[in-house]
Design goal:
- By secondary structure, this protein is an alpha/beta fold.
- The chain has 24 helices and 25 strands.
- The protein is globular, with a radius of gyration of 26 Å.
- It has three domains: 214 residues, 3-Layer(aba) Sandwich (Rossmann fold), CATH 3.40.50.300; 119 residues, no CATH class; 274 residues, 3-Layer(aba) Sandwich (Rossmann fold).
- The two termini are 39 Å apart.
- It has an eight-stranded mixed sheet with strand order 6-7-8-3-9-10-13-12, with helices on both faces. The protein has an eight-stranded mixed sheet with strand order 19-20-21-16-22-23-25-24, sandwiched between helices.
- Helices cover 30% and strands 22% of the residues.
């Protein structure tokens, strides 16, 4: 008998929105079910319905059984005796899920005392054991710390410790790694594996990261518009997807190990003229429940739709071995996505590009253009020995200087015309600080910033304003960066007006340029999807025809399909307009797809820089190798057989950087060095030097004992 069984689950939110519709699944003890899909597909609503945590206005029907006992229809008091004991949940944001005014040890002990009846002393001792189990160093001391004193990865470990405190039979994890760096994500997934082994619990892992599911889950359910449209074993789904939506999701993923592959074939997916694979854009929109669904919800975006797709919502049918089912009347019998998307129609104004675009999320092909070798192109941005330190104060009434945060500590690079340089690294390494220092167009604390041949330290006010026309920025959160009180037309016209330029038909040109409809000009930001808002942000940045774009995590908050559309757009615009990009990101798979060169930052320093092919193919710094090893591959076969070394712990405090090599405390090679070699790391901070002059003179590394000639196996 399955531990957790869901049958015909339906969730309707007021006024009449169908969030979950006829979802069925079962999870056995020790099994991991991955639930994937775009935002709005009903994943979180499904988890909250199972936990009995939906708002009071929601209507729920169907069946949820835990070890054969029905949960739906029980009172909140009855469910409270089950939640935290037999059924546990790991929430997406641990900071908001933990109480800020109590130590984390007390919060873990509380659930043990409530459900197990343990004494205060026994519960505290058990809390320390659990913190140690999930890998928190100094568990007895850290149990007395408060949530704000932990990093994001550590807080997520605390949530997992709390979830397994009473040996539950089922655990629901809702996007437990979404906001984490790849290194911390890998650590958290390892902790979840330990938790599963320690408790034998069934796990439902909700995520939008198909790479995470490939390496962790046993079975996967793909959700779209509130329904499970394809379910089966992970290997079977990834190797032979049968639902067009699943195929589109899988091939839209950027990969660190080269171009996207057709599932199960080993053949690269054909790429469009702009360099990106074809993919479905738009989003999974919940349907009104008052109307009987008259068609497949994926019909407007499906490239292989037939007449029967409009006759009704398809029921799941068996399409493969081991319970592989798909809700589609025209399940695809081929494993080659190129055959699926070949029948798609290009949108108006496009030519020859397969697309599943919904209105307002269209992409346009970029014309091929010859590019001169890098050394022959002019330098657009040059940074030399850039430093940004922030004073650290303590006290409220009597403030006193207590130290210095070394946010950026002497970095240098250049960006050439038509080139994309990516700054990558964990949170807190100084990527965004470096970008903001460049954006100021002012004298830095130390070092030099040269933009289009002009030293920013020597700029006068009038010249600085003029130069801002050539340097624009696209921020991570498009909703926060757009004025909610202004229509799209006004947002796009504002920079033109500020610089004394006429708007004329420029707003319409910008909408066309980024693939938005003319009708979007009259909308407010809240009336647009996430991908559409990001396109508005890009259009605003292009309004003044800049030569350099600073991009701060421009696709981090988007679904994988929308993310792929925005990346295609950026590649197309760079080719068409000759733009240069400084691209800040923590997703190394995206960087592999969009960047020409990459600079890896650690604790305010650049530890490796070079061409993407060189750095990804022959990482010379142990930190670079660890970052690449931590990125999951969306291929179960490769992901579960790859050899890798994962980083442990968090980066040191930038207010107190260690002497010598700043990475040595986490370096997997440091413990294998001789006394003489390790003393060099202890006493001397390495400078950038050529990694391997015989293979790539442009690749430089700051490491005393670089991985010269080492090749990452990915």
């Amino acid at each position: 008998m399955s531990v957790l069984e869901v049958i015909g689950l339906r969730v309707v939110f007021p006024p009449d929105v169908r969030a979950v519709h006829e979802v069925d699944f079962a999870v056995d003890a020790g099994e991991v079910l991955g639930v994937v899909g775009e935002s709005g597909s009903g994943k979180t609503a499904l988890a909250l319905a199972v936990m009995g945590l939906l708002p009071s206005g929601a209507r729920v029907a169907g069946s949820v059984r835990l070890r054969g006992d029905e949960l739906l229809g029980r009172s909140d008091a009855e469910l409270s005796r089950i939640r935290g004991k037999d059924l546990a949940m790991v929430f997406q944001d641990p900071l908001s899920a933990l109480t800020p005014v109590y130590p984390v040890g007390d919060q873990i002990a509380e659930t043990i005392r409530i459900h197990a009846g343990a004494t205060r002393a026994a519960a505290r001792a058990r809390a320390v054991e659990l913190l140690d189990l999930v890998g928190i160093p100094g568990a007895s001391r850290r149990a007395r710390a408060y949530p704000h004193e932990f990093s994001g990865g550590m807080r997520q470990r605390v949530m997992i410790a709390m979830a397994i405190a009473n040996d539950p039979v089922a655990i629901l994890a809702d996007e437990p790694t979404t906001a984490l760096d790849v290194t911390i994500q890998a650590q958290v997934l390892d902790v979840l594996r330990v938790a599963k082994e320690a408790t034998g619990a069934a796990i439902v892992l909700i995520t939008h990261d198909l790479g995470v599911v490939a390496g962790f889950a046993d079975r996967v359910m793909v959700m779209y518009a509130g329904r499970g449209v394809e379910t089966g074993p992970v290997g079977e789904i990834y190797r032979r997807p049968r639902m067009p939506y699943t195929i589109g999701l899988l091939q839209s993923l950027p990969r660190i190990n080269g171009p996207a592959m057709a599932p199960g074939t080993g053949v690269p997916v054909p790429r469009d003229e702009g360099g990106g694979p074809a993919f479905p854009t738009g989003r999974a929109v919940a349907a009104p429940s008052g109307d009987d669904p008259a068609r497949c919800p994926f019909l407007p975006r499906c490239p292989v739709a037939i007449g029967a797709c409009a006759d009704g919502e398809p029921e799941p049918v068996l399409v493969g071995p081991a319970g592989h089912v798909a809700a589609c009347v025209n399940t695809v019998a081929t494993a080659d996505p190129a055959e699926v998307f070949a029948s798609a129609h290009a949108p108006d104004g496009a030519s020859g590009r397969p697309s599943l675009s919904a209105p307002g999320d269209r992409a346009y092909p970029a014309p091929a253009s010859a590019r001169a070798p890098r050394h022959e192109r002019p330098i657009v941005l040059e940074v030399e020995d850039l430093v940004r330190h922030h004073p650290l104060y303590r006290g409220t009434l009597f403030r006193r200087r207590a130290g210095t945060v070394h946010a950026v500590d002497g970095i240098g690079f250049d960006v050439r015309e038509g080139e994309t340089l990516a700054l990558v690294g964990e949170s807190g390494c100084g990527k965004t600080t470096a970008l903001m220092e460049i954006l100021r167009l002012a004298r830095p604390q130390r070092g030099r910033v040269t933009v289009l041949g002009e030293d920013t330290a020597a700029l006068r006010t009038a010249r600085r304003k003029a130069l801002r026309r050539d340097v624009q920025v696209v921020f991570q959160d498009p909703f926060a960066s757009l004025d909610p009180r202004m229509r799209v037309a006004d947002i796009l016209a504002e920079p033109l007006t500020t610089h004394g330029l006429g708007t004329g038909g420029r707003v319409r040109e910008l909408l066309d340029l980024v693939g938005l409809e003319r009708g979007h000009a009259g909308r407010y930001p809240h009336g647009l999807s996430g991908g559409q808002r990001q396109r508005v942000g890009i259009a605003r940045a292009l309004a003044l025809e800049p030569r350099l774009l600073l991009l701060d995590e421009p696709v981090a908050s988007l679904d994988v399909s929308v993310q792929a559309g925005v990346m295609d757009l950026l590649e197309e615009l760079r080719s068409r307009l000759g733009l240069a990009y400084l691209f800040v990101a923590h997703d190394l798979a995206i960087v592999r797809r969009i960047a020409d060169r990459v600079a890896v930052m650690y604790l305010g320093r650049i530890v490796e820089i070079g061409s993407v092919d060189a750095v990804y193919g022959r990482p010379a710094h142990p930190y670079t190798r660890a970052l690449l090893d931590a990125v999951p591959l969306p291929d179960p076969y490769l992901e579960r057989r790859r050899r890798r070394v994962l980083l442990q712990g968090d980066p040191p405090d930038p207010a107190d950087p260690p002497p010598g090599c700043r990475f040595r405390a986490r370096c997997p090679r440091y413990g294998t060095l001789t006394d003489v070699e390790s003393r060099q790391c202890d006493e001397h901070d390495p400078e950038l030097h050529p990694a391997n002059a015989h293979q790539d003179v442009d690749q430089r590394v700051a490491c005393h004992h670089a991985l010269v000639g080492a090749r990452a196996e990915r």
